[in-house]
């Protein structure tokens, strides 16, 4: 029993020690919330990739999708790559609709797109735009190796900022029904005395949880 | 302390030395990428056209070689030919009612299957950028194409150029080669998307489609 308690305390202590601090804020503005949930309809979450200097990370989009489907098992989230491949070439960075009106025009011009969307019973399309980037960094870590062994010595630190916005399109209403934005920032550290110990701030994960929670509140009847 | 090594052991050492030398030489060679990816069939209404397609050997075997300009840089060889053919085969078969590979370059003295027109794609230019060149954490590929639409006899119908671009951000534990491959696949997908969305808007193609199909379909967006 005491051994288990020590083990749990050690795990918690390690987790606290190896993760840096993160601050985050979430803003939202949503309309026409489906109070009864979305039933058997599906949701697709896509990342914006048309900016010249950044891409919305596919793993962030996947993280938000996983957060929603694990929070409410009844919500079926279609994988981004599956969806983009299924509707190729209409959701590539060059051709992806920027407004819901563009999508309406695409469905009129390409009946196959409208048929596929209908067969998938897609009710909501959620676009995520943003990225996580490293900001200021300081310090240095030096590593050396010799016949007797090797090791590192020094201290490094760097900051990370995450900035994402989710835009919700409702196919039933043919309208944009919400925008949720999240900002998170944190500082990571890496002290090294023989072995480097990274203390990483989970900035992207915090942003994912923040935006995922708000989307769950919007889509699920259980929240 | 004296020690003797038997002949089989010597052979083992020789193989090890040869492997080490080869490994060192390989480290000095150019970075090679044979572009490989999956290209989905397009979701698009087919044009009722029988289109021939002729891939010139230079296109089918397209390869870009960029020689290093300093000792700190690496030379690059990016082979896109096979991936180009896979992507364009998939795209054209999805866009046109009938796609026929040509036996030879269209011309009056060349025996080819009968089609409405023949498309000849050509890679005019391929450029790449990696983080060590630009200090930006993105791998990029630019491709510039020239398309010729000709009759079976080789008479010109339309000729136009088209750009394509693909990029991928740096990723943990991703090699330069894997990232360049992904950027190239994105560029090829972009080429397909650009072609699908602009083909019927090329003025000379639009005029030809109007003649072939009538005003309603030929003027399609």
Strand count, sense and barrel status of the largest sheet of chain B are: 5 strands, mixed
Main structural class of chain B: alpha/beta
Give a quick account of the main beta sheet of chain A: strands, pairing sense, barrel closure.
6 strands, mixed
Show unreliable segments of chain A: none
Number of strands of chain A: 6
Radius of gyration of chain B: 24 Å
Encode the helix/strand succession of chain A as letters: HEEHEHHHEEEH
Separation, N- and C-terminal Cα atoms of chain A: 37 Å
Plain-language structure description:
The complex is a heterodimer of chains A (223) and B (221). Chain A is an alpha/beta fold and 223 residues long. Chain A contains six helices and six strands; from the N terminus they run H-E-E-H-E-H-H-H-E-E-E-H. A six-stranded mixed sheet of chain A has the order 1-6-5-4-2-3. In chain A, strand 5 (149-170) and strand 6 form a beta hairpin. Chain B has 221 residues and is α/β, with parallel strands linked by helices. Chain B is 38% helix and 29% strand. Chain B has a five-stranded mixed sheet. In chain B, helix 3 (81-95) runs parallel beside helix 5 (176-198). Chain B is elongated. The N and C termini of chain B lie far apart (85 Å). In chain B, 29% of the residues are buried. The model of chain B is unreliable at 1-8 (pLDDT under 50). At the A-B interface, helix 5 of A face strand 8 and helix 5 of B.
């Amino acid at each position: 029993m005491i051994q288990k308690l020590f083990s749990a305390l050690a795990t918690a202590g390690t987790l606290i020690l190896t993760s840096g601090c993160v601050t985050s804020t979430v803003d939202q503005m949503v309309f026409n919330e489906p109070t009864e949930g979305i039933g058997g309809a599906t949701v697709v979450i896509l990342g914006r990739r048309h900016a010249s200097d950044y891409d919305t990370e596919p793993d962030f989009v996947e993280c938000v999708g996983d957060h929603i489907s694990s929070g409410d098992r009844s919500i079926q989230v279609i994988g981004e790559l599956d969806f983009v491949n299924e509707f190729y070439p209409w959701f590539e960075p060059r051709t992806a609709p920027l407004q819901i009106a563009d999508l309406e025009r695409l469905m009129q011009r390409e009946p196959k797109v409208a048929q596929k969307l209908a067969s998938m019973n897609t009710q909501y399309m959620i676009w995520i735009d943003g990225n996580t980037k490293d900001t200021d960094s300081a310090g240095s870590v030096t590593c050396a190796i010799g016949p007797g062994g090797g090791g590192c010595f020094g201290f490094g630190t760097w900051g990370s900022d995450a900035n994402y916005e989710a835009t919700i399109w409702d196919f039933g209403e043919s309208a944009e029904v919400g925008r949720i934005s999240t900002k998170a920032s944190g500082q990571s550290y890496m002290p090294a005395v023989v072995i480097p110990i990274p203390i990483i701030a989970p900035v992207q994960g915090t942003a994912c949880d923040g935006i995922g929670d708000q989307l769950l509140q919007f889509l699920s009847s259980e929240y | 302390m004296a020690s003797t090594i038997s002949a089989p052991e010597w052979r083992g050492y020789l193989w090890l030395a040869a492997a080490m030398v080869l490994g060192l030489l390989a480290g000095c060679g150019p970075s090679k990428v044979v572009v490989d990816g999956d290209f989905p069939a397009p979701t698009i209404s087919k044009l009722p056209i029988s289109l021939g397609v002729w891939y010139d050997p230079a296109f089918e075997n397209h390869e870009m070689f960029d020689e290093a300009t300093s000792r700190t840089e690496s030379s690059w060889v990016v082979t896109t030919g096979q991936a180009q053919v896979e992507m364009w085969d998939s795209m054209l078969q999805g866009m046109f009612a009938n796609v026929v590979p040509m036996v030879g370059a269209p011309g009056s003295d060349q025996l080819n299957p009968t089609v409405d027109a023949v498309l000849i794609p050509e890679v005019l230019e391929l450029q790449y950028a990696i983080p060590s060149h630009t200090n930006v954490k993105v791998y990029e590929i630019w491709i510039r194409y020239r398309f010729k639409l000709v009759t079976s006899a080789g008479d010109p119908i339309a000729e136009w150029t088209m750009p394509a671009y693909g990029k991928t951000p740096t990723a943990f534990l991703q090699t330069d080669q894997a990232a360049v491959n992904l950027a190239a696949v994105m560029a090829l997908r972009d080429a397909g998307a650009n072609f699908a969305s602009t083909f019927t808007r090329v003025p000379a193609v639009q005029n030809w489609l109007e003649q072939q199909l009538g005003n309603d379909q030929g003027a399609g967006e």
